[in-house]
Amino acid sequence: MQVFKNALQLYSDSLGIREQRSKLIAGNIANASTPQFKARDISFKDAIDRATEEQKPVLKTHSKHFDINDEHIEVGYRQPVQAAEDGNTVEMPVEQIQFSENVTRYQISLSLLNKKINGLMTAIKGE
Amino acid sequence: MIDQIKNVFDIAARSLSAQQVRLNTIASNIANAHTKVGDPAKAYRPLKPVFEAVMNDEQGQDGLATVAISEVVALNRAPTKIYEPSNPAADKDGFVYESPVDQEEELVEMLDASRAYQNNLEVLSTMRSLMVRTIDIGK
Q: Which of A51-60, B50-59, B60-69, B76-85 is the most confident on average?
């Protein structure tokens, strides 16, 4: 099954990160009129690097040692181009552009994943 | 009140209802823009909703947030005093007190609220169509 994992892992990771990013941007858009709200986002590159990097087991010599290989993604704060006076850092045009970019890239990952699955199916059937 | 924010539907639903409350207060303010009474204490005061971000977890680590209205406050603005002795509601000196609603402010607020509502709805419908497409994966 390793062959399937190798073929599909990258795209499924990418879809997962894209989905998480959509939820963050949806939250930003929801809070566009909330005073003092700080817009959040993740770096897709960091997240995908973390998801694809080789997970090396770390020796734990004590039961209270932390596991460093958790799949936790760092969520940062957006730097506003022009901060609003009420302390809100959601800029609607920026969020809309980021959202549409993210959705488009989600669709790209989805169609690539579909093509990959179809390719594997063709290979399995041998037609 | 809030259980957990799991998906974009949780975020958008709460946000849409918050904007709806905001639109309702605006409608109420505009409807009462010219209400006049004889007692300044009883004059209509414009209502304003207070928006508050609702985080998924207390530390805000996963960054998921939606919005809720924590309270609706009546603004502490002095009503406009108008001399109108012919008004049946006038006090003994012939003054009436008009509700201090700034109609331009309310209209701008209404545009903002309706744009925010549309934005949230657009996010919701986009994410829903993506989900539907994802179900059909591999077909």
A: B76-85
Mean pLDDT of chain B: 90
Task: Pick left, alpha or beta for residue A15 (phi over 0 → left; psi -120 to 50 → alpha; otherwise beta).
Answer: alpha
Tell me the CA distances in angstroms from A43 to A34, A48, A74, A120, B62, one per residue in order: 24, 9, 8, 31, 13
| Chain A hits for B22, Cβ within 8 Å | 33
Give the DSSP H or E segment for A108.
helix A92-125
Residues B54 and B67: beta-carbon distance below 8 Å: yes
Q: Which of A22, A24, A34 best probes binding to B when mutated, by most B CB atoms within 10 angstroms?
A: A34
Q: Which of B57, B128, B137 to mutate to test the interface with A (most CBs of A within 10 A)?
A: B137
CB contact under 8 A, B130 and A107: yes
Under an 8 A CB cutoff, do B15 and A30 touch?
A: yes
The angle subtended at Cα B126 by Cα B119 and Cα B137, nearest 5°, is 165
Per-residue pLDDT band at B61 (split at 50, 70, 90)? low
Nearest to A18 by CA among A118, A103, A126: A103
| CB proximity B120 to A under 8 Å | yes
What value does the mean pLDDT take over residues A81-100?
90
Return the HEC string of B39-89: CHHHCCCCEEEEEEEEECCCCCCCCCEEEEEEEEEECCCCCEEEECCCCCC
Span A32-60, mean pLDDT?
A: 83
pTM (2 decimals)? 0.84
Strand B95-98 vs strand B47-55: parallel, antiparallel, or unpaired? Answer: unpaired
For residue A70, the one-letter residue type is: D
